[in-house]
Amino acid sequence: MHITTVCLHPEMVLDAFKGGVCGRALEAGVASLRCVNPRDFAAGPHRSVDDRPYGGGPGMVLSPEPLLAAVRAARAGAPGGAPVIFLTPQGGRFTQRRARELAAGPGMVLVAGRYEGIDERAVELEADEELSLGDFVLSGGELAACAVIDAVVRLLPGALGDDRSAEEESFSVGLLDFPQYTRPAVVEDREAPEVLLSGDHEQVRTWRLKQSLGRTWARRPELLSGRDLDERESRLLAEFQAEYDIKIRDAKDDQPH
Ligand code: 9D3
Question: Alpha-carbon dihedral of residues 23, 15, 91, 118, nearest 10 degrees?
Fold first, then answer.
């Protein structure tokens, strides 16, 4: 996979992948990562890449010409069919589904903004798509580009993280993770769940599915609305809900009246 970022702080992106699963995948040649800096395409003695917003207001706006030149250089070096994606707060939400789609393609050009934003004409002329990470404010698109790269590269064949069994994945798609435990068996009077130490793999699988269903119901109920539960899943969730009810009652009993 051929990945190019267009950004004013290439070191932010390159340094983010010096280690870890994705860093190793890049070293192994599973994907390539290059950066194109609009400043290298800026004219004038100051190589300026930003200017004051037309209409007034705070901050600066990324100028269209150096950005367009950088994006076009990046596009020219990318495989045909690699989408040019602008990371902006106005974009559609980046999802695991989009990560899987991108991982199945030949590459991507990720354009990160800075300042108050990007001149809209550059977006209109070159963006195939706009993506956002969510409703919070970053100080630039570089970290958003890093998040997209990380989510995509770990899915590529040959990257560690692509080795999760299909069975394990299908078991819990769309659900929150079950809780994890490791040694020691007791921490400050809190025991690891007995079933996990039992060695009964079928019971462990069932307990984990129940926890995933229960936590999703308790914390992210909207994830269950788009999902049909089979008979076994419904029973496990009902068990979780009954136990959850008892826990809430017990917690209330412990409160001073
Ligand atoms: C939404 C805030 N904007 C109006 C006050 C100003 C502004 C702040 C920060 C405009 C751009 C940015 C930089 N953010 C990104 O480039 C960005 C981003 C984000 O801030 N949150 C979630 N996803 C993304 S993707 C790119």
Answer: -150
| The pLDDT of residue 226 | 85
Q: Which atom of ligand 1 is nearest to 88's Cα?
A: 26
**Residue 171 lies inside a defined structural domain of this protein:** no
CA–CA distance, 220 with 204 (Å, rounded to integer):
23
Q: Is the bond preceding residue 184 a cis peptide, omega within 30 degrees? A: yes
**pLDDT over 90 percentage in the chain:** 92
Kindly state if the Cβ of 229 falls inside 6 Å of ligand 1: no
Q: In which domain, by residue range, is 110 found?
A: 2-153
For the question of whether the overall pTM of this predicted structure is more than 0.90, the answer is yes
Give domain status of residue 214, yes or no: yes
Q: Output the six-digit token pair for 230.
A: 């089979």
pLDDT tens-digit map of 200-231: 999 999 999 999 999 999 999 999 998 999 99
- Which of 135, 153, 171 is the endpoint of a domain? 153
CATH code for position 232 = 1.10.1270.20
